[in-house]
Amino acid sequence: EVQLQASGGGLVQAGGSLRLSCTASGFTFGYYAIGWFRQAPGKGREGVSCISNTDGSIDYADSVKGRFTISSDNAKNTVYLQMNSLKPEDTAVYYCAARRLACPIRIQYDYWGQGTQVTVSS
Which of 92, 95, 89, 96 is nearest to 15 (CA)? Predict the structure, then answer.
């Protein structure tokens, strides 16, 4: 069974940092892309970043470029999202998701984990 577990959220002041983790099981990690998405109160789902474990391609939303960094540790079946220079507008529930092969956050992801709450105070 495909399972994705997101962790690492919390409360941080503006300008601070958090590192989110997404640990996967139940599928061949190397053939999938892992994406991070977020949903803030009153907002729709927003793609944040993704990484393909097949070809190494990476995608970022314009709103997080230069602040967030995605990485993958294939030995641990884990993808990380390092979030620096956090802003109050980054406050959201963050979800990790998986799909076969391709990465871009604009396309459909098939498997979803539970979200982890990130709250950034002003």
Answer: 89
